[in-house]
1-aminocyclopropane-1-carboxylate synthase (Vanilla planifolia), 469 residues
Amino acid sequence: MTTKKFLSSKATCNSHGQDSSYFLGWQEYERNPFHPISNPSGIIQMGLAENQLSFDLLEAWLDAHPEATSFNKVEGKESVFKKLALFQDYHGLPSFKQELAEFMGELRGNKVMFHPSKLVLTAGATSANETLVFCIADPGDAFLLPTPYYPGFDRDLKWRTGVEIIPIRCTSFDGFRLTRPALEEAYDHAVKQKLRVKGVLVTNPSNPLGTTMTSSELRLLADFIEAKAVHLICDEIYSGTNFDSPGFVSITQVVSERPHIADQVHVVYSLSKDLGLPGFRVGAIYSQNDLVVATATKMSSFGLVSSQTQHLLAAILGDKEFTRNYLVQNKTRLRQRQRQLVSGLRSAGIGCLPSNAGLFCWVDMRHLLRSSTFYWEMELWKKILYHVGLNISPGSSCHCTEPGWFRVCFANMTEATLDLAMRRLRQFVHDISTETLSPQRQLGTTTIASWVRRLSVSSQRIRVDHLPR
Ligand SMILES: Cc1ncc(COP(=O)(O)O)c(C=O)c1O
């Protein structure tokens, strides 16, 4: 039996955030994962922002460049294996940092230059965000975050640092845009609670909205952090997923016009989304604040990127023709997939916030709630998870202030699976709307389970051509 005796308060407290419906949905998926052949009525994972759409491009590159992964000794040359195995420099491989800096510039249309000396490598954006919070704030200090926000931030920003998150309440009334009154309200709220505000953190493009921030929102943020003398962390992990206009504008572009606030602004990046490599754990902090760079570099020794990974990625990113082509093709595929989701939802009578980036849509199911409360949002979520067999993320897990919004991911599955998910949803909405009962009256579990099975089996027959090989 596990005992809490003699353990730290971190080990025994419940502030990690893993009891959020966001993570609970993942657990349920793990228990009954959909597979087109072996488990066609299983749960389809639509709560995971993973990009699997362009894997074939990376694999084709690897096939064409076996030397990038091979450690075979070349006559007269230093052994690559030995060089990487003995590599001890915490600052990262210079070749990789150079390529990553250039790639980050490329993602921003080369409108801004990134210098490798201002880059700190981290084990993913998760570590980058936490490291920045450690550099900027002390336990009990506060960060302001626009809602809805990525559910992982409760863990990443608060758990080990002891920092508080104060929500900046954005609403559907303004298309969830950031407004000055909302920013000021959040700041005043923190002050009333006697919290010292140390910064604002935004994701651009937004997770979960799938939208890019406008230049005027970015200027508003710049004005705000200047006036309040606080920091700004911009998590730009989705910068390469901007598949539709308007184009992505990075905070670094705004800062280049306002050098006096440059040392208050820090960018987070990672290869988890744009290149679809979350397992490699490659992230970065980019900052013009020398002390932040120095401190984050020291801290990064607790979450380094292995030299072998850096070696491979330096070769991939160094192939400029490949990366340019990859980014274009990846965006085209994301756009097609997003359109497939939007039209599938539309055919079920469900709308979503217009989006132009990301791996998900922000979906409006307010009309399916029995009443506009978070209780009924959770009831709908459970029904969609257990009966319809789709794991989506309820807005409440993203701290949305309005019940009835859900984040639905579209890039971690095949076209056929997305098609099936939409057919399940359409059938569900049809069944509840043709019932004389209200939408939230429990449908018989057996009835639903049987139509989930029926739909799944027929899809298996029709769309075998789309099954993964
Ligand atoms: C906004 C945002 N930041 C950070 C992360 C974590 O990324 P990584 O896998 O690079 O740690 C995610 C992952 O979903 C994310 O959406």
